[in-house]
Design a protein that fits this description.
116 residues; nickel; three-stranded antiparallel β-sheet; hypothetical protein PF0899 fold; Hydrogenase maturation factor HypA; three-stranded mixed β-sheet; single chain; 2 helices; HypA/HybF; nickel cation binding; alpha+beta; 34% strand; zinc
Length: 116
């Protein structure tokens, strides 16, 4: 289950950011995950409480926002929404597309409680 190691890396990054800002607690962690990221959001959500024990983010809420799959057509130049198994241009139907989003795993934002 690589979601466990992703949670560990995420919490290391969160702890570094919290330390840089002088926070004493993390309230909320928001991730943006695309369907092509190779991550199961539900498994990540389940692994999080186990990994967060004893960290600055132990009581933080983990919010996962889905990212849509978007492609840019190299034939007509349109940027359109696509599906995982059909990365076709939504404007002209061409298969010559470049993925511009949908494979990301991004720490979108944090809510921190700052030390007094």
């Amino acid at each position: 289950m690589h979601e466990l190691s992703l949670c560990q890396a995420l919490l290391e990054q969160v702890a570094d950011i919290a330390r840089e800002h002088g926070a004493n607690r993390v309230e909320r962690i928001c991730l943006r995950i695309g369907p092509l990221a190779g991550v199961e959001p539900q498994l990540l959500q389940q692994a999080y409480p186990l990994v967060a024990i004893g960290t600055i983010a132990e009581t933080a809420e983990l919010v996962i926002e889905p990212a849509e799959i978007r492609v840019r057509c190299t034939r007509c130049g349109a940027e359109t929404v696509a599906t995982a198994n059909r990365l076709l241009c939504g404007a002209c139907g061409a298969f010559q597309t470049q993925l511009i989003s949908g494979d990301e795993l991004i720490l979108a934002h944090l809510e921190l409680t700052l030390a007094d």
